[in-house]
Amino acid sequence: MKKCMNQNNNFVDESLEGIYEAYPDFYQKGNGDTRALIHHCKQESKVSIITGGGYGHLPVFLGYVGDGLCDGVAVGNVFTSPSCETIQNVTNSVENGSGVLYLFGNYFGDSMNFEMASEFAQLNGIKTAIVKVSDDIASAPRERYQERRGIAGIVYAYKIAGALAENGANLEEVEQIAKKTVENTSSFGVAFSSCTLPGADKPIFEIDEDDMEIGMGIHGEPGIKRGKMLSSEEIAMELTTKVLEDLSVMEGDRISVLINGLGMTSREELYILYRDVASILKEKKISVVKALVGEYATSMEMAGVSLSILKLDEEIETLLLQHSYTPFVSF
């Protein structure tokens, strides 16, 4: 597939250099490490939130480093976890005495390297906590939700934990609100086409032109079923029904809805899907406090969509509506 790039082995670093050039007053390199992107403004006496993961999912992960969100990010190669060394560089650059929350998606490589970095940090006197986002209902049942993959619902964990940290909460409080947010977030998606990694001569998986896959992961992990392409109304019914059931959302509940494009699906299509999801929610008398529609967690140029729902209580709703800013996304 044609891509705007130079050498494929420089894809990540050259893309990151472009981001540093585009936002020089907002981002900088931690310890001189291009892969350790940090917020330019280090706040004293605030819990630091660090995330990270493989490249190729913009705005996840680095797009959520910003005001009222994360403080730094460790960037790996495309679809590959960041190194322990890079995580340490981020940690040493943003830690300010109040402790560090490592907040990332539930994948084996990420878990291994963040856990190792946490051990090193604690040996150096830095207090740490770990929360893994696990919102993809296609990857495990509700009773084992902590085993699920992390996909677009990670956006809510960043927003809620970041807001509480901004308010001056301690590490244990920020850790608990992140866990509470993960428990109350579920996501479900569909893929219409594959994506091609830089330098590869074929897509990471094959799917027929008239088919779609329900529940596919953002790295091409198998979904739960494949079939003929559905209409937006049918996709909305499939996704919404499953996510509401998973979260036990009832009439009168208040929620936030995230309609996410995986990289190739147009905004016009995303708004058609939101129209159809909103119609179902109105019929069920479920209140949408905040809707997010756009590209919040992509998979290179994969075509497809995902639906995430965050079930709200008073605390989470207040934090969700609190001000935040990043150059990449708007809340």
From TrEMBL:
Protein name in the entry: Dihydroxyacetone kinase subunit DhaK
Example GO molecular function: glycerone kinase activity
SUPFAM superfamilies registered for this protein in UniProt: DAK1/DegV-like (SSF82549)
A cellular component annotation (GO) from this entry: cytosol
Cell division in keyword set: no
One of the GO biological process terms: glycerol catabolic process
Keywords recorded for this protein, A-Z: Kinase, Transferase
Domain DhaK: start-end pairs: 7-329
